[in-house]
Structure formats: C-alpha cells, structure tokens
Design goal:
Blueprint lengths: L2 H29 E4 L3 E7 L2 E6 L2 E4 L5 E8 L3 E2 L3 E6 L5 E12 L2 H7 L3 H17 L4 H6 L1 H16 L4 E13 L1 H70 L1 H20 L11 H17 L1
Antiparallel strand pairs: 1-4, 2-3, 2-5, 6-8, 7-8, 8-9
C-alpha cells in the first residue's frame, strides 16, 4: 500500500491527525534534552543566553530555544609549557609548568573567552615570570611548594571571571644554563670544604677542651689526696698529743727509749759487726729505759 493509498483511506481528517502526531513527536524531540553527568548545556533563545542545563532530563521550548554549546565539566590539563624567567639575582631559568582546571560556569566561559587553553597558558606564563622575578635562585629551589601555591592563587584570581576553577598547578622542573650549573657546582664544593674545615677545627677544639678537663681533674684528685694525707697526719698527731696528755710525759719518754734500744740491738745483729761502740748518750738512754721499765713493773 502506497502513501497515496493511505491518504485516500484516512481522508482529510486522517491526514490532519498524522500531521499532528508528527508535530507532537518533533516537539518532544526538540523540547526534551538529556544531559550527561560530565556535561552542561548552554541554551540560547534568539541568540541570547536562556539557561544552563545540568545533568539529567531537561525541557526547553521547541523551535524557540536551542542548545548552543555543550561544555564538558571534566578536569582538564594544559600541555606542559616552558617559559624563561629571570630571578632577582639575575639568573636565567627555564620553568616547566603544568596546570589543571575545570569549567564550573559555562555561561561565563563561552561568552567571555574564545580560546580557554591559550588564555590560561598565557596567564600562567606571566604570573610565573613575575613571581620568580621576586625571588633569588636559592629561594626558587628551596621554596618550590610555596611558589606553586602563590602561582595557583594568582591564576585563580585571574581566571575567576571566565567561570574556571584551577584545581592544581605544578612546577615540574627549573632548568639552568650550563655556565650557571658550573658556578653552582663550584660554590657547592667550596661550601663542602668549608664545612669540613669547620668540623675539623671543632674536633680539635673539643680535644683540647677534653685534655684540659682531664688535667684539671687529675690536679683536683691529687689535691684531694694531699688533703686527705694531711688530715690523716694531723689526726695522728692529735692522737699522740692526747695520749701524752692522758698518760703523762714519762710514757712518751719510755717509748722513745725503747725505740733507741731496739735500734742498737738491730745494729748489733748485722754481719761482720763484732764490736759496737756505744756513745755515752746511748748508755744514758739504756739507763733511762731500764728505770722506766722498773718503775712500770
């Protein structure tokens, strides 16, 4: 059955119904928009911004509204860029950077900037040069994390009007020319030699200090020993004095006489000593000893 036969069968009323059904189907097709989770759609009406469609089922006015832009809201990465910069101490460096961003307000992005990637790359290059120009080379190497945070914050402020969120900024590498590298290597070697010399000097100083401490300790110990010996001698003298005071002078003289007699006795016991010449004082000492001995018993 041909299309003409169908029209003849339905007649004029049937054609109208078919046209109406086709129009309704077309309106549904034009008016219903399904947006995926990773996208947002910008809707225009007669060339002007009408609305932004989020993920899910959305409805627009058929034939009046149209989806002008389908924007991905996934995070994007700019190609790795290399830009020259001069530090505060006039050192030329090449900085490799990488930036991650995503579009959060498509209505700003599509109507305020044409090439998003190029605009962000240019902004990053300018900010990197400006920030590195404020720092010396040693600070750039030592404070890379702080530099990254500063660059990220500056880029965020610059692209805020474009409906873009900078999620991460990275400095991948800071390259130097060969002459600067050689100079830094010489400086590093000199610093190592200086530290080694300082360490050696400190070790020698410490050795001298320890030796002096050891000598001082030995002197202190010797002084203590002498003091103890002096105290012992003083104590012995005191004991003898106390004994003399308690027992009388005769007891002391008796002990002295006995010591003299013992000394002459030992002298007579030596080999080859047949004759002993005794002085007069010795005889008196013997007599005194015998008298004292007789007196004690």
């Amino acid at each position: 059955m041909s299309f003409e036969d169908i029209l003849l069968e339905f007649g004029g009323g049937g054609i109208t119904v078919l046209l109406l059904a086709a129009f309704i189907i077309l309106c549904i097709y034009k008016g219903v928009r399904i947006v995926s989770q990773s996208e947002k759609h910008v809707v225009e009406r007669f060339g002007r911004l009408r609305s932004v469609l989020g993920p899910g089922i959305n409805f627009i006015v058929p034939f009046l509204d149209r989806v002008a832009h389908q924007i991905s809201i996934l995070e994007r990465q700019l190609p790795t860029a290399t830009q020259d910069a001069i530090t505060a101490d006039n050192v030329l460096v090449q900085v490799e950077t990488s930036v991650f961003y995503r579009i959060v307000e498509p209505e700003k992005t599509v109507y305020r900037i044409r090439d998003v990637d190029a605009a962000i790359a240019t902004t990053v290059a300018g900010i990197v040069r400006a920030e590195i120009g404020k720092m010396e080379l040693d600070e750039v190497q030592a404070n890379r994390s702080q530099l990254i945070s500063t660059i990220k914050a500056s880029v965020e402020d610059a692209v805020d009007d474009w409906g873009i969120e900078v999620t991460r900024a990275e400095i991948l590498d800071v390259n130097l020319d060969q002459a600067t590298r050689d100079a830094m290597l010489q400086q590093l070697n000199a610093e190592r030699e200086r530290r080694a010399a300082v360490t050696t000097a400190e070790g020698q100083k410490r050795a001298v200090e320890l030796n002096a401490d050891a000598e001082l300790y030995a002197a202190e110990q010797e002084a203590k020993a002498r003091r103890v010996a002096a105290d012992a001698e003083a104590y012995a003298t005191k004991v003898v004095a106390t004994a003399i005071q308690d027992n009388g002078l005769e007891a002391a003289q008796y002990q002295v006489a006995l010591k003299q007699v013992e000394a002459f006795g030992n002298l007579g016991q030596g080999q080859g000593q047949q004759t002993i010449v005794v002085p007069a004082q010795a005889v008196e000492a013997f007599g005194d000893a015998f008298k004292m001995l007789k007196g004690r018993f």
